[in-house]
Design a protein that fits this description.
By secondary structure, this protein is of the alpha/beta class. Helices cover 27% and strands 24% of the residues.
């Protein structure tokens, strides 16, 4: 592991770490199957960046924090800040991750590069209407800007 690399990356010589991009892709596919449109690396008004943010058909906001391994979870102190910005919060991990480490106040998704499954539903904490509107507008504008950049 390089000194500047605080979290080890996935590679054959490090089988304890999962590829976070593959976990994110599989989780995004799951969310789409559930009717939730997701975008990656969504910056919240508080300055934190969610791995995946999703918008459901009734305007519900979902945030998913992808964890590539135990060290990634242990060194992350920002995830509690996400609760104020979503109706539902999940961790997404591979089936090799010791899920009992993850807090009960979050939902749990087990994923791989092709899809995933919700194995523990997230408790629902409804956003205030003004915050929901602001987040929905930010989400829509962010998604539209990304779509334009892809042209």
């Amino acid at each position: 592991m390089a000194v500047s690399d605080p979290i080890p990356t996935a590679r054959a010589s490090n089988p304890a770490i999962d590829d976070a991009r593959l976990l994110m892709r599989g989780t995004a596919r799951l969310l789409m199957d559930l009717g939730i449109t997701a975008i990656a690396e969504f910056t919240l008004p508080c300055g934190r960046r969610a791995d995946l943010a999703g918008l459901g058909p009734k305007g519900e906001m979902v945030i998913v924090e992808v964890k590539s391994g135990v060290q990634d979870f242990r060194t992350d102190e920002k995830w509690p800040d996400y609760f104020a910005w979503c109706d539902r919060f999940y961790f997404a991990v591979s089936d090799r991750f010791p899920a009992d480490m993850l807090p009960e106040q979050a939902g749990l998704i087990i994923a791989d590069g092709f899809g995933g499954a919700v194995v523990r539903e997230s408790p629902v904490a409804k956003l205030a209407p003004a915050r929901r509107k602001a987040l929905t507008l930010k989400f829509a504008r962010n998604a539209a800007e990304r779509a334009l950049r892809a042209i």
